[in-house]
Specification:
The structure is a homotetramer of 254-residue chains. The first copy, chain A, is of the alpha/beta class and 254 residues long. Chain A contains 8 helices and 7 strands. At the A-B interface, helix 4 and helix 5 of A face helix 4 and helix 5 of B.
Chain lengths: 254, 254, 254, 254
């Protein structure tokens, strides 16, 4: 059986590129995204055309048992999940408190926080039995500071960060490596940033801020760091790392 | 109409003592706690015996509309809520991941995080209209670092902290002061710590760590700092403060 | 003998106002500033006119033995220093790296960092013997994040913050309370901000940002929080607190 | 001319292993350490035996012009310094305040803080002209929290951290990448830890905590992460990262 890298949240941005990176190293990558079967198929095809092995399915993390079932399915039918990437965003744009509905706030928590907790619940016992495993968690500036309009996102992402710290405190010594990766800036990702901005604005942003001066984070470059962290020797593990474009200021300066 | 101080979570620890402190300054204090009508009555009686004005009701913050209804009731029947104290804890003791049920994790979020969000939703429009208001939020070490056994508590409290930061970013300039108060240690509180430890162990702890050397935080002393923060001039507001016993190490040293 | 409050760095801003606050509570306040004997005399006269007791002398903290000698002088001639306020700033305005001379960088460290270390060296043995004491340390945003143009200031202030944390870890349990007070904004202080901006610009800033909307921190209001921290019961001590104007964004948002 | 990697502080631990890693990638590595010409020669020989190119010299960073002269010498005689590694420690073991002399405190600052400032002063103009460069800064837990006995180390390392943040804010957009690398644990390094503990105790520690369970950070593994950071694409730079053994708790938990 081939070792598996499960990517929850694998569109054309960070998730998809991390999947490609791990596929190139011999992992069977299993891709999950909420919608867009065509996009999913396209990504699988690209990986296979590059001599990789990939499969996947649509998955809505907020559905009951969705994450749990897919983990059990993979472990039974494909192989042991050696690496899991939790790459579900919960950014809903800047919204004043009064425009942030109870439902949106709860949804943010279900996606950003509770989903990761559930993944850890179903996956860590398996990793503990195998005495090995890696969980890479994509996170955002909002995990470390609240801001105007970010009440839902920041609250959910900070919850995510504390899950990672609590998991490390419990599972690092059992040889399970959890990393909290703070992406501090806009990623050049058509499926998320692109949809939020609309095609025309996104293209304009890419041409000005992005291509010109690498002002958007390039997801295939971010993927290199994900791969590196997953390869770190256990004497020298990283728990938290930040990543941003050279042309941006760090969050504590902007 | 008298100005009101609403205390959500007012047992015999921090909440009750903050209530007494504000009552002594002329506030009508409105007390809410989840259970124990007798305890609630006792606290009201003590405040009245001290020439204060108090009323209250049992309130389960996780019930739909519970917080919203009580705020509207107070504003209509008693007076404007000038100060609200959100003092709901969500500590469930140290539990390994596998012993932290989905239900417990969600409950932690509903109490520690979502409840404060709902309070802000219903209260800030009223405060904004009055161009004045204070929200004092009790928090814990878990808001700033995860730990073994604290996955539910840390995740929920970090969410609480980011709510406070996001509220300040949106509402400080509208003259609404939100303070995130990190209580970094065990409070000498019979209703929470006492129940968690059992009467005998609690009494033993008080006699050794507590009375002997002030190693438990004394809630009536903490209340002085709550009062101070609520009185700060708006040119000089505190957003975050930590409080611990002189005989304890700070969380970053233990 | 009267108990003494020593204020190192007592111009017309935070230092002078903290001095007045403690004088009103019965302390003999001893005032030190680097230059301006007239300003020093004026402050002493104001305190005495308000029925307080004050004395003082010019003191350059970077001079060898300056701090050590003054502490010993006060302890011998006036009374035990119950409270010390270290209020020496080291802001030199925004300077690019190339415009920050070795001398300026070292000077920043001598004033902001080394001076506090020396004060602690000479004062803590006396406080330890008396089993009591408080050291209040004024600090700045730069203590918690670096920024363009702030390399000298940030480096020195972060060093100051770690001194405070290390002192608390060693001396809190000996009943010596050290507090690190982050003033996150511009203070309405003629001796520092005023001199940096020039009289005309300072007056303009006061009239627009300051008086109009309390956008400058008012030092006599800040002094209330210094007094409060010095009065906290030892079961409930604050190690770190931030203070900013209601109309400003917190440093993590700007 | 070959591109150069300058390693200031290159004993048999992190510095030496980072040097070897960069030599394997084709850099001319220039090694500096304070003492032990034999150790320096041995490292150069090892690198050359591995087909690398290395040279070096003894360097005491606290000596006037020492860093400045060596940088100018390398740039003139060997080649452009593409990467500089500042790997000077300043740990002096746990010392109470009263046992930390003024001289030791100042020495800590000269080594940990001022030396990096001087390196940046002499190197960044050259890198700015070349529109390219990387400065990797080894740091320690003490950079983010003070502790009993660590007043000198913590104060100096926190200053170091703020230098890094300030440099990034000024130079990242000029394509100069500065990374602050927090090594949160004991490194298996004979030249530093070994000398601090004595040979026998060090060997015992290696055999128990180290080899058995990778409880000491293995410097050649750490070097992989240094190399990775130096290779990050400029759209995806890391400013801060932590590294610790899987079997240790993070600093915020211990």
């Amino acid at each position: 059986m081939k070792k598996v890298c499960l990517v929850i949240g694998s569109g054309a941005g960070v998730g998809g590129n991390v999947a490609k990176r791990f596929a190139r190293e011999g992992f069977h990558v299993y891709l999950c995204r909420r919608t867009d079967q065509d996009g999913l198929n396209k990504l699988i095809n690209e990986i296979e055309a590059d001599d990789g092995v990939a499969s996947g399915s649509l998955l809505n993390v907020i559905d009951e048992n969705s994450i749990e079932d897919i983990v059990n399915h993979i472990e039974k039918e494909i192989g042991p999940i050696e690496v899991a990437v939790y790459n579900i965003g919960a950014q809903i744009g800047n919204r004043d408190l009064k425009d942030t509905s109870y439902k949106a706030f709860e949804m943010g928590w279900r996606m950003a926080t509770f989903g990761l907790f559930r993944l850890a619940q179903v996956l860590t016992p398996l990793m503990e039995e195998r005495k090995s495993g890696t969980i890479l968690v994509t996170s955002a500036t909002s995990a470390v500071r609240g801001n105007k309009g970010q009440i839902s996102h920041a609250s959910a992402m900070a919850g995510r960060r504390m899950i990672c710290q609590s998991l490390n405190a419990e599972f690092a010594s059992k040889n399970i490596h959890i990393a909290h990766i703070i992406i501090d800036g806009a990623v050049d990702a058509p499926d998320t940033l692109g949809k939020m901005l609309g095609e025309e604005n996104f293209q304009k942003l890419r041409e000005t801020k992005g291509m010109e001066n690498d002002g958007l984070l390039v997801p295939e470059k971010i993927a290199e760091t994900y791969w590196h962290i997953a390869q770190q020797h256990r004497s020298s593990w990283t728990h938290e790392i930040d990543i941003r474009s050279f042309s941006d200021q760090a969050w504590w300066n902007t």
